[in-house]
């Protein structure tokens, strides 16, 4: 049997800290950002007997982890154990104590590695770090998320909690946004295109057929629309490009028409957009005041944002999220890059001089939260880090973090052959975008520089 102990100190009182853990979303927020995990079920309490179930890949197989809570004494203690999973045994005690407004969270874990004596022998041969190293990385990530989330929630602690409806809640950004808002005490509902799950905060709509009951929108303080077909998932054919555009424009139009017909409209409507608005702009520094670009992506973004103009004209505070490349190890552009870079096959693409405007996943979430809670925020905002980099520098930095060489070039013509127009536009276009309006409003970026963002995303802090 092995034991592991981790201590975290947060600038928050014990009641607020314990309340954060009690929210269903805390489980998702505590999941290491590099772990590909699917949440199967999560009871909405820490009461004895409640369970949380998730599935994650382990080599070629999918492993299910079932955690069951075994003790509950708020606000100072709760405990859980693994009833099914990769370990032979796992029990986890959480101790909380407060002194002068600072809360200490102590995680005590007792575990037995798989395969009993054989597992112990292998782990000892490897210096005890095969399992322990992974556990240490996990708890470091948990500490950072807990401290940062509580700080961001405290920034708006004096404001009333909101009732929020989110479309596109199952995507990479939506999943984390819903979890974060939930841990802040907001009442979060999801718009889903499948049968509504009993007992869950879900409402049904089908944007492809135009099916939306206006009545389900009543009573929400804010509506956030993040939905749309993946831009970088497949090569662009005429059919694919039409699907990319229609999935955004039509769904936005349907939702906005419904909002405009409401007697009691929400205070705020937030719509996902993208820096694709600006097109390929070379060395030009781009702010929210810059003109629109030319080509397919600018056209999509223009129609996308225009579809919400009726809501804006009706007096609802409307925010457009012109997001850059969102860095997440489990998806998006970074997720696709990891495999070749881990094999030392990463490097400059098309010469590498094009500008890449990136943002960490947590900054994407925290920026949306800022724009949601700040009643003066409206209009278009560039959701990008303050320090865009050239693609060659991005590759070099990612290689450094992964401890791999990153000088294998991929010529522009090869990108076009391999990925077609999609690859050309998403990897070779140059966009040097600055988050001018967020900075003017005093938003503090968690990750200003690329290396710190990549290290956090990958759990490679040293």
Report on this structure.
- The chain has helices at 14-22, 25-30, 116-125, 129-154, 172-183, 238-260, 296-306, 309-313, 332-342, 361-373, 391-402, 412-428, 436-440, 450-458, and strands at residues 2-10, 38-42, 51-58, 61-73, 77-84, 89-99, 102-112, 163-167, 187-192, 202-204, 222-225, 268-274, 285-286, 317-323, 325-327, 355-356, 358-360, 379-383, 389-390, 432-433.
- It is globular and about 60 Å long.
- The strands form 5 sheets. The chain has a 7-stranded antiparallel beta sheet. The protein has a 7-stranded parallel beta sheet with strand order 10-9-8-11-12-14-18, sandwiched between helices. A two-stranded parallel sheet has the order 13-20.
- The model has no long low-confidence stretch (mean pLDDT 93).
- The chain is built from 14 helices and 20 strands.
- With 462 residues, the protein is of the alpha/beta class.
- Helix 11 (391-402) crosses helix 14.
- The longest helix has 26 residues, at 129-154.
- The chain has 2 domains: 2-143, START domain (Alpha-D-Glucose-1,6-Bisphosphate, Chain A, domain 4, 2-Layer Sandwich), CATH 3.30.530.20; 163-458, NAD(P)-binding Rossmann-like Domain (Rossmann fold).
């Amino acid at each position: 049997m092995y034991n592991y102990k981790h201590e975290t100190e947060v600038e928050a009182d014990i009641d607020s800290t314990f309340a954060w853990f009690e929210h269903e979303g805390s489980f998702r927020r505590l999941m290491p950002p590099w772990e590909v995990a699917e949440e199967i079920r999560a009871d909405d309490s820490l009461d004895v007997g409640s369970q949380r179930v998730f599935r994650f890949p382990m080599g070629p197989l999918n492993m299910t982890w079932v955690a069951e809570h075994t003790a509950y004494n708020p606000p100072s203690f709760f405990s859980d154990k693994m009833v099914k999973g990769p370990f032979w045994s796992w029990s986890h005690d959480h101790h909380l104590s407060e002194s002068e407004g600072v809360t200490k969270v102590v995680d005590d874990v007792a575990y037995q590695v798989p395969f009993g004596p054989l597992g112990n022998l292998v782990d000892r041969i490897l210096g005890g770090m095969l399992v322990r190293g992974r556990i240490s990385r996990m708890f470091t990530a948990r500490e950072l998320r807990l401290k940062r989330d509580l700080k961001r929630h405290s920034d708006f602690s004096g404001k009333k909690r909101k009732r929020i409806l989110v479309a596109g809640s199952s995507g990479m950004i939506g999943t984390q946004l819903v979890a974060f808002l939930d841990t802040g005490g907001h009442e979060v509902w999801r718009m889903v295109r499948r049968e509504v799950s009993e007992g869950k905060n879900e409402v049904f709509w089908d944007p492809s057929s135009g099916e939306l009951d206006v009545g389900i929108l009543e009573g929400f303080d804010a509506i956030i629309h993040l939905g749309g077909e993946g831009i970088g998932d497949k090569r662009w054919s005429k059919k694919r490009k039409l699907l990319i555009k229609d999935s955004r424009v039509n769904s936005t139009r349907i939702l906005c028409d419904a909002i405009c017909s409401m007697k009691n409209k929400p205070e705020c409507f937030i719509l996902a957009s993208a820096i694709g608005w600006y097109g390929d702009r070379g060395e030009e520094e781009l702010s929210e005041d810059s003109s629109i670009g030319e080509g397919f992506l600018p056209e999509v973004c223009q129609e996308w944002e225009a579809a919400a103009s009726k809501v804006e004209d009706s007096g609802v505070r409307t925010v457009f999220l012109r997001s850059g490349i969102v860095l997440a190890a489990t998806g998006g552009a970074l997720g696709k890059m990891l495999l070749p870079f881990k094999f030392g096959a990463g490097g400059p693409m098309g010469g590498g001089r094009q500008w890449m405007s990136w943002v960490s996943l947590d900054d994407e979430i925290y920026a949306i939260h800022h724009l949601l809670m700040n009643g003066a925020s409206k209009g278009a905002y560039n959701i990008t880090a303050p320090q865009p980099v050239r693609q060659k520098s991005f590759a070099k930095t990612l290689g450094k973090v992964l401890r791999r060489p990153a000088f294998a070039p991929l010529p522009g013509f090869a990108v076009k052959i391999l990925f077609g127009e999609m690859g050309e536009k998403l990897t070779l276009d140059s966009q040097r975008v600055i988050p001018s309006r967020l900075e003017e409003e005093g938003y503090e970026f968690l990750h200003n520089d690329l290396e710190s963002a990549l290290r956090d995303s990958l759990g490679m802090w040293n």
